[in-house]
Each structure stands twice: as structure tokens, then as C-alpha cells.
Amino acid sequence: MIVGKVVGSVVATRKSESLIGCKFLIVEPFEKMEQGGRIVAVDNVGAGIGEIVLVAKGSSARIGCGMDKAPVDAAIVGIVDDGIGLE
């Protein structure tokens, strides 16, 4: 799991049927959390731009958001209220 900041959103009108109704957000992981830059994650908790979030990746993302058969590689599974030492 990684921690990052929501910096934007993605709109996709054409997508896999299993992703219809999903909200996609762009998350920038904190520098010490992960190398490789920004990721697109399915928003499972109602996060917004500017919020600090917990992101599950890989098969844990699909399980964490209840989308076992969807092509999901990253999912926002929590909004951080207080994170001492994250940045």
C-alpha cells in the first residue's frame, strides 16, 4: 500500500463494462513511497483533489474495492486524516 496526494482526475466515456460508474483519480505518491511517478486509481471512498489517500495496488486493489473481475491495478481505499512524517 502507498500513500499519495490526489492531483487530478480522468474521464473515460468508453471503457470496460466492469468499470462503468467508477471514478478515476490521478495520485502522486509521496517521494519515499514509490518510484515511477503518478498513477491512476479507482476511487472507492469518495476522495477529492488535494486529499492525501491510501492506495492499494495489484490484486489487492481489486479485492479491496470489490471488483474481483475488473481490470483494476490501483484503488483508493482510504483518506488520510493525519499522517505524521509522510512528506
Q: How would you characterize this protein structure?
A:
With about 90 residues, this protein is mainly β. The chain has one domain (about 1-10, about 20-80): Beta Barrel (OB fold (Dihydrolipoamide Acetyltransferase, E2P)). The chain is about 5% helix and about 35% strand. The protein is built from one helix and five strands, in the order ββββαβ. Strands 1-2-3-5-4 form a five-stranded mixed beta barrel. The longest helix is centred in the C-terminal third of the chain and has 6 residues, at about 60-65. The protein is globular and about 40 Å long. It is found in: Carboxysome. Pfam families: EutN_CcmL (PF03319).
Give the topology.
Elements: E1 2-10, E2 24-29, E3 39-43, E4 52-57, H1 59-64, E5 74-79
Parallel strand pairs: 3-5
Antiparallel strand pairs: 1-2, 1-4, 2-3, 4-5
Subcellular location: Carboxysome
Protein name: Ethanolamine utilization protein EutN
Pfam family, one: EutN_CcmL
Provide a quick synopsis of the model.
This protein is mainly β. It contains 1 helix and 5 strands.
Rg is 12 Å
Gap between N and C termini, in Å?
16 Å
In order across it, which strands form the biggest sheet? 1-2-3-5-4
Low-confidence stretches: none
**What is the name of the CATH class?**
Mainly Beta
Could you tell me the number of beta strands?
A: 5
Mean pLDDT across the residues is 87
Number of helices: 1
**Strand pairing plus helix content: what structural class?**
mainly beta
Roughly how much helix do the residues carry, as a percent range?
under 10%
Q: What is CATH's topology name?
A: OB fold (Dihydrolipoamide Acetyltransferase, E2P)
- In total, how many domains does the architecture comprise? 1
Give the H and E element order: EEEEHE
- CATH homologous superfamily label: EutN/Ccml
The fraction of residues assigned to DSSP E strands is 35-45%
Write down the overall geometry. Answer: globular
* Proper CATH architecture: Beta Barrel
